[in-house]
Structure formats: structure tokens, C-alpha cells
Automatic annotation (TrEMBL):
<feature type="signal peptide">
    <location>
        <begin position="1"/>
        <end position="27"/>
    </location>
</feature>
<dbReference type="InterPro" id="IPR001638">
    <property type="entry name" value="Solute-binding_3/MltF_N"/>
</dbReference>
<dbReference type="Pfam" id="PF00497">
    <property type="entry name" value="SBP_bac_3"/>
</dbReference>
<protein>
    <submittedName>
        <fullName>ABC transporter substrate-binding protein</fullName>
    </submittedName>
</protein>
<keyword id="KW-0732">Signal</keyword>
<feature type="domain" description="Solute-binding protein family 3/N-terminal">
    <location>
        <begin position="62"/>
        <end position="290"/>
    </location>
</feature>
Length: 303
């Protein structure tokens, strides 16, 4: 296994400061065109937690949330309603309700979300961000899930893709993700060992990568474990997981460093969702319960 840092599966360029449901053929993330106004849990202010929400966030009764809705089942756009759906969306809605607020999800390019949090455009980032030290320099995180990296190929693996030796193969990844760094490092090792480089096919949205694999345009793909598992499930007998999951790391809600006690409010609300069973119910509904955590934490505070 190649050594690599444990980072957010989807490694965004963290703005200029830190330096971006089924298998639909079109990517849905990338611009602020779709939002959610779904039937979220009715806001039920928990007095202690609600008091922790900064006044500037609580004033309009909602939390503006940035999310790249091209990553099913975590978040994607329902083609029938054009609403953002997914288990992270439902978790965000339940969390907002715990704070007496409504979640307002805004579809955005992945690599624009953290800069948007820094500028105040978004009050929370919910988009499968891996909590890592580099990102903690510019935002704080409340951890809520654990995911690893998985590979997939066409059923039967007709091109004989081996994650540990994919030299000469055409492999797809989503731009801005750590999978890009992963496949680049593997390709460099191939060349160093005198083998053909990996042909890296980088797409804007994960749904495009999925579609490329189903149509045979690429030989294999890698993405977060729940994303790959969902893609395999949704395509029936067309795809299969190959190799083992590796590099497990936490997802975190991204929160601005100038948001005061907002991180404490989010942590408290998440703890209540875990305690009352809502968290587990949401994950089980979407079939992603294997990544459940029991003890969320705040990381990056004061950084």
C-alpha cells in the first residue's frame, strides 16, 4: 500500500488563503443553482443549544449550508424535484432542527465551499469533508462519520484492474479529491518501477466518473467507500468493488473560525442526535451505517 496522508477524500483547494442517486449521466455540483426546501424535521429549539448559536446565524431562522450535490448517496440532486437529497442532507436538517433552525442547503462547487465559509457566504459546510490538519488551519470541524477509499470496476473486472498495480489502466476520479493525489502517487510509482503510467481521468462530478465506468470509458474508479458502495448497489450487476477499503478518516461539518460558539452548538446537537437514535436511523436508511461514530469531537478550534 502506498503511504499517503489521511485527508479529506475530496481535497478542495482551500481558497487562496490555504493556497474546490442513481448514476445520472450529468454532474449536478458546480454552481449555486439548486437548494433544498425539503420537509426537514420541524424546528424544535433546544434552549441550551439554541443559545449557543451566534445571533448573526440565528437571526433569519436558518443555517446556510454549502454542499456539492454530486456525491450520492451523501448528497445529490433529485432529478424529479431538483432538491438536494442524501443522508448528509437529512443529518444536516435534523441537526438544524435541534438548534431551532431550518437547514438551507445550497449547491456549490466543492472547491468553493470552504472559501465560502471563510467569506461568510455559508454558515456551515456539509459535503463529505475529511477533517485534516491542512483544512483545520482555516475552518473548524465537528466530526460525524468515518469513511475510507474504495475501488470499483465493471462486473467481473474484465480489464483486470488491481488497486495495488493499476499501471497502464485508465482510472477515473473526481477533481479536488484526495483520490486525485492517491492515483497520481500510484502512477508515479508505476513509472519509477519501469511500468506504464496510469491514465488518470479526472471529472468535475462523481456522477460523471460513475457514468464513465458503467459505459466502459474507463477501466476502474476510486472514491469514498460509501460512494462506491452506493454506485455498485444502484447499477445492479454492472459494477463490483475490487480490493479492500483503506485510509479511513473522519468526515466533519466545516465551521468558520469566526463563528464563536457555533461549533459547540453543532457538537451538542450531534450528540443529542446520536443519543436519541436519529443519527443511526438516518445512516441505516441510506445503508451507510458502517461508518457511524459514537463520539464526535471538535477539531481545529483555536488554529
Amino acid at each position: 500500500m502506498l503511504p499517503r496522508s489521511i485527508t479529506r477524500r475530496r481535497i478542495a483547494a482551500v481558497g487562496a488563503l490555504a493556497i474546490a442517486a442513481g448514476l445520472t449521466l450529468s454532474a449536478c455540483g458546480g454552481d449555486d443553482t439548486a437548494g433544498t426546501d425539503t420537509a426537514a424535521p420541524a424546528p424544535s429549539a433546544q434552549s441550551t443549544l439554541a443559545k449557543l448559536v451566534p445571533e448573526n446565524i440565528a437571526a433569519d431562522g436558518k443555517i446556510l449550508i454549502g454542499s456539492d450535490a454530486s456525491y450520492p448517496p451523501n448528497e445529490s440532486v433529485d432529478p424529479a424535484t431538483q432538491k438536494i437529497v442524501g443522508w448528509e442532507v437529512e443529518l444536516g436538517e435534523a441537526l438544524a432542527a435541534k438548534l431551532g433552525l431550518k437547514a438551507d442547503f445550497q449547491n456549490a462547487g466543492f472547491d468553493t465551499i470552504i472559501p465560502g465559509i471563510q467569506s461568510g457566504k455559508y454558515e456551515l459546510g456539509v459535503s463529505s469533508f475529511t477533517d485534516n490538519p491542512e483544512r483545520e488551519k482555516v475552518v473548524d470541524f465537528v466530526t460525524y462519520y468515518s469513511a475510507g477509499v474504495s475501488w470499483a470496476a465493471l462486473k467481473g473486472n474484465p480489464k483486470g484492474v488491481n488497486p495495488d498495480d493499476a499501471c497502464g489502466k485508465k482510472i477515473g476520479v473526481q477533481q479536488g479529491t484526495v483520490e486525485v493525489d492517491d492515483i497520481k502517487a500510484r502512477s508515479e510509482k508505476c513509472v519509477k518501477d519501469g511500468k506504464p503510467a496510469i491514465e488518470q481521468v479526472v471529472r468535475k462530478g462523481q456522477t460523471e466518473v460513475n457514468a464513465d465506468l458503467v459505459s466502459g470509458k474507463i477501466d476502474g474508479m476510486l472514491a469514498d467507500s460509501p460512494i462506491v458502495g452506493y454506485a455498485v448497489k444502484e447499477t445492479g450487476d454492472k459494477l463490483e468493488v475490487i480490493g479492500q477499503v483503506y485510509d479511513a478518516a473522519p468526515y466533519g461539518f466545516a465551521i468558520g473560525k469566526n463563528s464563536g460558539t457555533m461549533k459547540d452548538a453543532v457538537l451538542g446537537a450531534l450528540k443529542e442526535l446520536i443519543a436519541d437514535g436519529t443519527y443511526t436511523k438516518i445512516l441505516e436508511k441510506w445503508g451507510v451505517q458502517d461508518g457511524a461514530i459514537t463520539t464526535p469531537v471538535i477539531n481545529g478550534a483555536g488554529g
